[in-house]
Amino acid sequence: MNDLCADIGYKSINHYGEQLCGDHVEIVEPNDNSTVIVLSDGLGSGVKASILSTLTSKIISTMLSEGLSLEECVETIAATLPVCSVRGVAYSTFTIIHLKNNQTAEIIQYDNPHVIIIRDGRNWDYPKREMNIGGKTIYKSNIVLQEDDIFVAMSDGCPHAGIGITYNFGWRRDQIADFIETLAPAGYTAKNLSTMLVDECDKLYGHKPGDDATACVVRIRKREPMNMLFGPPSNRDDADRMMSLFFSKEGKHIICGGTTSSIAAKFLKKPVKTSLNFVRSDIPPIAEIEGVDLVTEGVITVNKVVEYAKDYLGENTMYEEWSLGRDGASLICRLLFEEATDINFYVGRAVNPAHQNPDLPINFHIKMNLVEELSKSLRQMGKRIKVSYF
Q: Could you tell me the mean pLDDT of each successive run of 10 residues in the chain, 390 residues long?
């Protein structure tokens, strides 16, 4: 094993006027050493296409997670899926990226636009082996992973963007690769890269997509630990033990909550430098403690982070807000969503007397629920989460 990990994100837009997307992305992790990503594109759009793409991706990912070889999976799907007698194309196409031990990637491609790989900041013409399985042409590649590699899998709705509107022949694959090349050095997350790519497709379509368009991005990066402290311990005698464990951990340290930051400052023998600078009217100001990377208010700030996390996993419409913001919630989001891969939560169970005011919509259970919701969202982002209660 190495210290690399995969950041995976995707986004889709539907064919104009359709309620369902004809593309589907399935991500499964059969074990800690394996991740299977399948992007499938059903013929046409709407309900039929959605069913075909969902079935295809589910069948492939399930078979792979049960230990069948890629060739067996592809052969089964290729033999199962008919070819449209009118158009002469398969009813569902697919791209498979199988990551093993964060060391190698197997790529299987059937009738989808070829995966773009950005290596060392440039579009890489990686080796592909042409195979014939079940009478269908399949391309297979085996890649040894490197840090900062970016894989971009997409449905044909991406290169078809802008046909007859912005471009005569659509947004060509090499032009999409150039687009990703310009974004790669900025260190965007896989989710944000896929969002920017699909948003650009939407613009090229004049916001009336003529096809479903999906982009799935895999970014290979080093593991980055992060530690977050939220709330004082229920037993005051546990404060020093909680702080010792928190500050002994490798990685950056985030502290949320006024009482919590006071306990941390006392432990570090450093003052808390508070601020009255409200960057946003709805988010309390941040503070500073020497030796701590970020100090924020507690419940209100974390609640905003949870809101951003849920949007990030969905349409990701708020990414510009938190990626550019200087308030506490935005700063936490950049640390947790973009930088961290392994996050340790240290959560105090003490009941804050200030939160027992019946006029305030805050109570102990809300704080615990926030931790659970944030942990759940971060796991869905592919983060490794550990929560310790005190």
A: 88 94 93 90 85 88 84 77 61 90 93 96 95 85 96 96 74 95 93 96 93 96 96 90 96 95 95 88 94 95 96 92 95 96 94 57 71 95 94
- Name the amino acid, one letter, at 275: S
For CA atoms 41, 43, 44, 46, the dihedral sign is: negative
**Tokens at 256, concatenated:** 């949320």
In the sheet that holds 34-42, the strands lie side by side as 23-31, 34-42, 92-100, 104-110, 136-144, 129-133
Q: Which residue has the tokens 């500050």?
A: 247
Q: Which two tokens stand for residue 110?
A: 């059937």
Single-letter code of the amino acid located at 274:
T
Domains of the chain, each with CATH number or no CATH = 4-222 (3.60.40.10), 225-389 (no CATH)
pTM for this prediction = 0.87
Q: Can you read off the two tokens belonging to residue 258? A: 């006024």
Bridge partners of 387, per DSSP, are 345
Cα distances from 70 to residues 28, 114, 322, 346, in angstroms, run 14, 17, 40, 41
Angstrom distance (rounded) from CA 213 to CA 21 = 8
Q: What are phi and psi of 338, to 5 degrees?
A: -95, -40
**What CA–CA distance (Å, rounded) separates 389 from 353?**
19
d(CA 128, CA 154): 17
Gap between the Cα atoms of 312 and 320, Å rounded: 11
